[in-house]
Design goal:
nine-stranded parallel β-sheet, TIM Barrel
Length: about 375
């Protein structure tokens, strides 16, 4: 898969996700096999460009090319100006957001809401491509609703304007992230244009990746929510495509090293106070993969300092060891001593707090 002078082999991309694909997480995805990593979308509105949030989202220090910036907005002149500024500041590829279904974006006639106005879409892609010397890509959905799937028409018009590549999420705007992604429309888009196409939506295993490529004929795959929970999915898909064998999942030690490193870097990137808050979503995804005791998880998500968060996370992985015992948990101060049952805490029962308050042992 090639866009201008950039080659993506294999064609695996990390989808831009607000609040997730910051510089730290992009570096992790890239190290695990993602060949294209797009920064979080930034508003095209001039008054929001100088905020701390926008500055952090646009931070590409130390990143290798291509540096991809996604701009979002509903005003043509704001989008053109944002594209020029980001290209001048070192963006190698500008991506236009026409896929975000969030209400706060769509009510400003931006994101996936733009797909309802074909004339405005045409004017935006023409103007942005004309305004910059770097490649411009477009991320969109299959349409606004089930009765208005117009991705094929928009794809053709985007190609005429000079858009270099497309990413298509297999849902309409009104679906948000509910239901199941469909790939017929993505296949129709791929047949309609000659430019590269990424297929996006519900790709969460190497087997599903193989199925989506076969169903759509897409040049590459863009992965979002599944990569939040298992960023090594890029590596697994690449290995499966190259060898036909699905690699073993990372060991507990591998996952420990990966997550502790990620969270330490988040603390450095955002500063302690904000970094601790941002890290909590990654801890929640860890808990989905490897559930631990309810008491330990509660302490971890309530940790207010970087040092405590890292210490408790270390204990979390210790507790995930098969030989970990309730006595070891109590010794670490993670289960109240008045409860003589690791089982209740592990299941996160509400009775734990009640028995703690009454200073007596659980009847379990």
């Amino acid at each position: 898969m090639r866009i201008a002078g950039f080659q993506f082999d294999p064609g695996l991309a990390a989808a831009p996700m607000a609040g997730v694909t910051d510089r730290v997480f992009r570096a992790l995805c890239r190290s695990l096999g993602a060949r294209a990593v797009t920064a979080e979308m930034v508003s095209a509105r001039p008054e929001l460009r100088a905020t701390r949030k926008s500055r952090l989202r646009l931070s590409h220090a130390g990143e290798c090319a291509p540096r991809i910036v996604q701009i979002a907005g509903g005003d043509l002149y704001d989008l053109v100006h944002a594209a020029k500024i980001n290209a001048d500041q070192g963006a190698d590829i500008i991506d236009i957001n026409m896929g975000c279904p969030a209400k706060k974006v769509c009510r400003k006639a931006a994101g996936s809401a733009l797909m309802a106005d074909f004339g405005r879409v045409a004017a935006i892609v023409d103007a942005v491509v004309e305004a910059v010397d770097v490649p411009v890509t477009l991320k969109m959905r299959t349409g606004v609703s089930a009765n208005q799937r117009n991705a094929v028409a928009i794809a053709r018009r985007a190609e005429q304007a000079g858009i270099a590549a497309l990413a298509v999420h297999g849902r309409t705007r009104d679906q948000h992230y509910a239901g199941v992604a469909e790939y017929h429309t993505i296949a129709a888009v791929k047949r309609a244009v000659a430019i590269p196409v990424w297929a996006n939506g519900d790709i969460d295993t190497p087997a599903k990746a193989r199925q989506v490529l076969a169903a759509t004929g897409a040049d590459g795959l863009m992965i979002g929510r599944a990569a939040c929970r298992r960023p090594w999915l890029f590596r697994d898909i690449a290995v499966e495509r190259a060898t036909g064998r699905t690699p073993a999942p990372p060991t507990l030690a591998d996952e420990r090293e990966m997550l502790l490193g990620l969270i330490e870097q988040l603390h450095d990137f955002y500063g302690e106070q904000q970094g601790v808050r941002v890290a909590r979503k990654h801890i929640a995804w860890l808990h989905e993969r490897r559930p631990a005791s309810g008491a330990l998880y509660l302490d971890l998500v309530q940790a207010a300092s970087a040092a405590r968060q890292l210490r408790l996370l270390d204990c979390y992985f210790d507790a995930a060891q098969p030989q970990a015992s309730a006595r070891a948990h109590r010794r670490a101060g993670l289960i109240p001593r008045c409860i003589n049952c690791h089982r209740c805490a592990k299941e996160g029962r509400k009775s734990v707090r009640k028995y703690t308050q009454k200073k007596r042992k659980c009847k379990e």
